[in-house]
Every structure is written in C-alpha cells, then in structure tokens.
From TrEMBL:
The keyword Signal applies. The keyword Metal-binding does not apply. This is Prolyl oligopeptidase family protein. InterPro entries: AB_hydrolase_fold, Peptidase_S9_cat. Residues 463-669 form the Peptidase S9 prolyl oligopeptidase catalytic domain. Residues 1-22 form the signal peptide. Keywords: Hydrolase, Signal. GO terms for molecular function: serine-type endopeptidase activity. Pfam families: Peptidase_S9 (PF00326). One of its GO terms (biological process) is proteolysis.
Length: 671
C-alpha cells in the first residue's frame, strides 16, 4: 500500500474558504452494478487502528489483508512520500489484530483476538493475547499467559496495556492474568492466581511482575510517569459469579499500601468510576451520575474525598475523556448531541482544533487521535456524513497539515448520500432523535425505505458516515436510523430499563419511525423494510410481533431472538449474574422474544449469522428459523462458517450486502 502525501500550510488554508479534493466530481452511484457496489461498501476500512511513533515520523497501522482476509500490521514512514512496509500478518477467519501501540522508538505491543468454537461449552469463545514485536517484525513474543502441562486452568484474557512507556520510565506496563500450576514434582510452578501487572522491557521484551495478583484484582491505572496509583477489584459471589459492584483502591505516590477510594455499580451506574490519574495534581479523572446523566469529575487521591464536577451537559451524557500521546495526557472530553463534539480543556489544542475546522470545512467530525512524545506532531482524523474520513499529520513547527491516509479509498468514486438529523414524535408524544439518509438525486417522495435500528441496545447512532446505511442509499433506499428509547447517551430517563426489560417501549419507538416515513410521504408503504444487526436485528424481528403489517420485509444480522437463550449463553461464565440482571426475569421474557411469536409474522425474513459468534450465539438464529418455518412463514438463514459477530471480512460482507439487496428488491417488488 502506498499513499501520496499532500502538504497544506495551515495558515494559508485559514485564508481560503475551502479545500479542493479534485477537479472532477465522482460518477453517479447508479453507474455501478449491485455486485460492484456490494464489494465496494463491504470492504473494511484501510485503517482499522493507528498509532504514532514517539518521534511522530512513523505510524503503525492495522489494515486488512486483501489476499486472505486477515489483518496486517504495517509501519508507514510519514516523511516525504508515505511508504508502508508490512511486518506482521495474521491469517483471515476468526483471528485478527485489534490494535498495536508503540512502547519505544523500535518496539510495539499488539492486541490479538481469536474467536473459536469451544466444544466443551458448546459455543464460541473469544481469546485475546498481547504480542510484543520490533518495528521490523522481529523478536515476536507473547506476553500473556500460555498453557503448560502443569497449568490448572486456561485464561482467555490476554491482558491490556496500562502504560506505554516514556523516556523517563521506559518500561511498559501490562496486565497479566496469572494461572496457577500444579506443584507436584516441581518447585518451579507458578502459584499466583488473578490479574497482576508486569513491567515489559522495551528492548528485550522480558517481563517482571510489579503488582502481585489477587483473586479479585482486575485492572490497574498508572499516571503519566508510569506510577501505579489505582487498583480495580471485581469481587465475586460465593458461587464464583461476578456481582455488579466494582471497588477501586488507591495508594499514595511512592507508597505500597492500598486504601479504599471509590466504588461503582455496573447495573445502576451509581458511584465514581476513575479512568485516569494526574499525579502532579494528585487527582483521578472519572465519571459519575449527575441528575440522571453521566458527567466528568475529578477526585483527590485521598480517603473520604468527594468528587468535584469538571464537565457536564444538560442534554446528553459525557461520552469519554480525550487523551493524546502514549502517556495519555488528558486534554478534553467528548459528547454527542446531533453529532460528535470535543470540549478541549487544553487552550492550545482548543485553538488548533478550531483552526482545523476552518481548514477542513467539509469534514466537521474532527479528533486528535495521537501525538509524538513532545506533542509537536499531531495525528488528526477528519470525516463527514459523505466522506468516510482521512488522517492528517500536523507539524506545529512548520504549520503544515499533511494528508497521509484515506480511510476508505475504495469509495472515492461513489457519490455518498447526505445525512440529516430529524426528530420523530412517538405515540406518547416523546420526540425520537433519528438520522435520515436520502438516495443521491432522489426527490425524497414515495421511495423504497429501510428503518435501520442500531445494536447494543446500550449504544446510539450519531451523524456521520455509516457504511451500511450508505450502501442501501446507493441502492436507492431511504434509510432512517432511530435512537429509540433504550439507547445510551441521553441519560437515565431515555435509557429506561434498557432495551431488554423495556423492549416494548424500544420497539414501539422503532415502529413509530417507520410510520413517520409513510406519513411524511417519504416511504412507499408497500416498500417499507426493516434491517438490523445484533440488538438491531432483534428489533427488526420483534417489530413483526407488535405490528406485522408495517414492514414488508425483515433482514436480521446476528439477531437476539429469545431472551432466555441470551441468559443461557453466559451461564458458563462468571458474568452470568450481570447478564441475568440486565435481561431480567418475568413476563417480558416470553412477550419480548420473537422466536416465541412466529405465528405473528407476515413479512418474509432473511437472517445472516457467523457460526463463531461469541456475542450472540448462532443458535438464536437457528431457533428463529425453525420456529418461522414450523409456522409456515417465509424465512431463510445465511451462515458464515468460522466468522464472529462483526463478520469482519470483505468477501463475507459483500456477499451479505448483495443477498440482502436481492432479497429486499424481490420481497418489496422493486423493479
């Protein structure tokens, strides 16, 4: 892979009104066949993860391998003409590289994920591993626990990077899930158990335990200097199940004694959840509930201290912290109204972000994704609804903003459809926020239409590029993405009791948005469909239970179909209690499970599912298919052998898109 480098002087850009990306407009989308369009939109992003080297002159990128569908770690030189060299390849299928981060000028740590069928459990499981590697691909070393003939168990938790090193503290810090070994016949067995913390030498990749594990230790938080200041405990009940309460302990700078700091309930979201430490101010940044919404607080690292409000919004939750560099310096907070925003606390970065917005007026979704150690070089990501995005490098010393990567170059010849934020009245008067995508060149009247509810359900859609909705828009469909009640980001009141226990409210909202499309004259009522993935697939199916006459075709990707099955899937794991409480018990288990109401269906159904899905077991789709066919309904299931919940493979996604489009055109009688 090779990209041209376009250099633009920021000060010159500020004096101009726009940036020209090319003299000729892209051709109309109707010039492409279905197969070509499915292949283009099914392609994975060229940049799946990216990390800037300590000096800012190179980037480590995780990119798809077009040959076998796997993932590749490549090192790109950002000086002069961008050149890229692959150094690590993971074959396609159920394995992938998730992320790679620099821990020194010549060393990286990567997180790998493998999804595999576990026959003893009868379902797929996800295993992660941390791998250290030099920037030329040499000296690869697994840092996570590995099974030995003496191991008394197996860990599928590969650990996480707590600290990526710095010039004054070169060792990286990673969590390590220690598995005890049998001591029979040996004095060298490991007897430690639980999550500890290892220091990793960036040159030799040797590991040294620096925090001994306990049976309930789960994670650690270090400051910018690499000092471990907070420990996370995840207590278990008497039957070895996790409960909802997390406990956080702190220790004084240079001290050894752990003291109680805060607690947080994962079910009620009450308490203080620390995520980052600033030892110079002796504070932790974290999140707590404020008037029913998540807000950002600081809390002194001392016993009995009270959280102090730093930033909140009256309308939406604060999504997260904005940090830059491998030392994760806190510079701001993010939140999402109609689209994503960043509130910069750092005055210089706030000014620079405003300048970037002026320099890139057609790419309003901006973020600072990484920085060199001295923060003189910044990695900027910019995108919009009709542009999947670009990465830029900004050099503070020269004032140059250089485009280095397009995120989805395969779509450059497609005219993408603008996305408009709308509000839709529900049957009880509440206003449902949603995003409307019209096909390019359409008059917006009496068109084939799709309601596309998001997954989660503890998630939300936001304004910007979405590959799935853009594919259907390119095929002539209006697409509506509602943030129904049960979505996250809008506070406790909108979240209700989550999309499981409050399924009736969530699905009623989804159906109301379909009716709105018809009432507005946008959708042809005979050509109205619903498509969803994961919980969105559940919503697509359950919409038939509430109003089987509304949608004329249903596409469900990796759907939940029975709430009891959802609980059963976690029964062999320590988080079973958390899942059981989240899904709940009672009458809604039966009323809210579409697999138990196959007789209600009138619309034809097409489902897609990976056989190695560890999020939603493929059994859910198979049960749904069996129930629908027994009820004499039109239904089909397309399976992808060895693929997980994301179906993260270009060929698989292209096949899924093409078959979904053919099904919709046939079911809706679209010529």
């Amino acid at each position: 892979m090779r990209h041209s480098l376009r250099s633009v002087t920021l000060t010159a850009l500020l004096a101009s009104s726009a940036i020209a990306y090319g003299a000729t407009p892209p051709p109309r989308t109707d010039s492409h066949s279905l197969s070509e369009t499915a292949k283009a939109f099914g392609q994975l992003p060229d940049i799946q993860a990216i990390s800037l080297s300590p000096d800012g002159n190179r980037a480590a990128i995780v990119t798809p391998n077009p040959i076998d569908g796997g993932t590749v770690l490549a090192i790109s030189s950002l000086e002069g003409t961008v050149s890229t060299k692959p150094i690590l390849k993971v074959p396609g299928g159920s394995a992938r590289i998730r992320y790679c981060g620099w821990i020194s000028m010549h060393s990286l740590i990567c997180k790998l994920q493998v999804t595999a069928d576990t026959y003893a459990l009868g379902q797929a499981t996800v295993t992660t591993r941390l791998l250290a590697v030099k920037d030329d691909g040499s000296d690869q070393k697994v840092l996570s626990s590995q099974a030995t003939p003496f191991s008394l168990g197996f860990s599928n938790i590969g650990g996480s990077i707590v600290y990526r090193g710095s010039p004054d503290h070169p060792d990286a810090l990673v969590t390590h899930d220690y598995i005890p070994e049998s001591t029979t016949g040996t004095h060298l067995a490991n007897t430690s158990e639980g999550v500890g913390l290892d220091a990793i030498d960036p040159d030799r990749f040797s590991a040294k335990m620096v925090e001994r594990p306990t049976a309930i230790s789960d994670d650690y938080i270090a400051d910018m200097q690499g000092n471990v200041r907070i420990r996370v405990l995840d207590p278990v009940s008497a039957n070895s199940r996790l409960n909802s309460q997390l406990v956080f302990q702190f220790r004084e700078a240079g001290g050894n004694q752990w003291r109680d700091f805060s607690s947080y309930d994962r079910q009620t979201e009450q308490g203080f959840y620390p995520v980052l430490v600033d030892s110079k101010q002796n504070i932790a940044y974290g999140f707590a509930n404020l008037n029913g919404r998540r807000a950002l607080f600081t809390k002194q690292l001392s016993e009995g201290s009270a959280p102090k409000l730093l930033f909140s919004r009256p309308d939406v939750d604060v999504d997260g912290l904005q940090t830059i560099g491998r030392r994760a310096r806190m510079v701001g907070a993010s939140y999402t109204t109609d689209f994503e925003h960043i509130e910069m606390f750092d005055p210089q970065l706030k000014s620079l972000l405003a300048s970037f917005h002026k320099a890139l007026p057609d790419l309003p979704v901006l973020s600072v994704d990484d920085a060199s150690d001295d923060e003189s070089i910044l990695l900027i990501r910019a995108s919009s609804d009709t542009d999947p995005g670009h990465y830029y490098v900004f050099d503070k010393k020269t004032g140059h903003l250089d485009e280095v990567f397009r995120i989805r170059p395969q779509l450059k010849n497609y005219a993408l459809a603008p996305v408009k934020q709308v509000t839709i009245p529900a049957d009880d008067g509440a206003l449902i926020p949603a995003y409307l995508t019209m096909p390019v060149g359409s008059d917006g009247k009496n068109l084939p239409a799709i309601v596309l509810p998001h997954g989660g359900p503890s998630a939300r859609d936001s304004w910007g590029f979405d590959w799935l909705s853009q594919f259907f828009a390119a095929r002539g469909f209006v697409v509506l993405q509602p943030n129904y009640r049960g979505s996250s980001g809008y506070g406790d009141s909108w979240f209700q009791n989550n999309g499981f226990r409050s399924w009736d409210r969530a699905i009623s909202d989804v159906n109301d948005t379909g009716r709105w499309l018809v009432k507005q004259g946008i959708a042809d009522p005979a050509k109205l469909a619903i498509v969803g993935w994961s919980y969105g697939g559940y919503a697509a199916l359950q919409s038939q239970v509430l109003d089987p006459d509304l949608f004329k075709a249903v596409v469900a990707i990796a759907p939940v179909t029975d709430f009891e099955l959802t609980k059963d899937e976690s029964r062999n794991y320590t988080n079973y209690g958390l899942v059981a409480v989240s899904v709940g018990s009672g009458e809604h288990i039966a009323s809210g499970s579409p697999a138990r109401h196959a007789d209600s269906f009138k619309a034809p159904v097409l489902m897609f599912h990976g056989t190695s899905d560890a999020n939603v077991d493929i059994m859910q789709s198979r049960v749904m298919l069996d129930r629908l066919r027994r009820a004499g309904k039109q239904a089909d299931l397309v399976t992808f052998d060895g693929f997980d919940h994301q179906l993260a493979d270009a060929k698989v996604r292209a096949e899924m898109l093409e078959k979904a489009d053919q099904f919709l055109h046939k079911s809706l009688n679209i010529k």
